[in-house]
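Appendix B, Record 12. Input sequence as logged:
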Amino acid sequence: MNVSELRIFGSSRSAGSKRDAGKFGEIEVELFDVEKARECDVVFLAVSGDFSLEYARAIAEGENGAVVIDNSSAFRYKEDVPLVVPEINGECTKTSKLIANPNCTTAIGLMALWPLHKLFKLKRVLMSTYQAASGAGQPGMDELQEGTRAVLSGERDIAENKIFAHPLPFNVIPHIDKFQDNGYTKEEMKVTWEARKICGLDDDFPLSCTAVRIPTYRAHSETIVIETEEDVDIDAARKALEEAPGVRLVDDISNEKYPMPLTATGQYDVEVGRLRKSLVFGDKGLEMFVVGDQLLRGAALNAVLVAEEMASNGSLVAKTTA
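Logged structural output:
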């Protein structure tokens, strides 16, 4: 996708400041305005859900509106708004100028699940996630760093916590987002709801997730166990994952090579490894370990790939200027 002009919009706090935009040089931040945003061909919204609910449709509506790709959760469960991982359901971008970007954990897991679903047909999915501090933004990373320093220096026995429910250094916390009435957290339910929608699964398709915060900076990890309708062939599964776009098979246990946050950080592809038949589900089961950079595949990269898919399928075209 060729970009001739890049514009950055912000609040009154950042308007007038300049941002380094790589090959586009320094760009001055403009005060957000709906009409100015509508001048663009595509607008990426990296804002709160409330902001998206207030402005996204206004930016996109009408023939002269912009394509809007929203990274918040505001529209993910709206029937008229596609929720998109391009390698899975990119064709549905033809139906709407407003597109929702999925939760980071969902996007990473589905990159591994989709090739296997096409091959063996998923029957049920069990997932446990190990999510980095940066999932809570820069404040989460700062709290982990400062807390670790304080404990290692002897300044404190246990780190302080303001961002996370409990101290994160030298700890893991099985609590991300708010608890729901069914005992799951909203983060866990997002995976269930979004996977069903993106993959076109039944509304009652059984997918369960436990989300855990761990003391790493970046890249989310996931243990995924699947039961399938068809018998699993591990060699066929490896081949399907090797050929899948956006996936890197890292599965050489004899040489101690498997997915890890250290190797997945900064990478566009999601790492998949530790493939084996499940001892629980036998011939109709498979277990694997998946790691992806949640700031890329789980957010910014997926949004850009959505725009590229739309440019490719004709649903995103440059506006003509007089």
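The radius of gyration is 21 Å.
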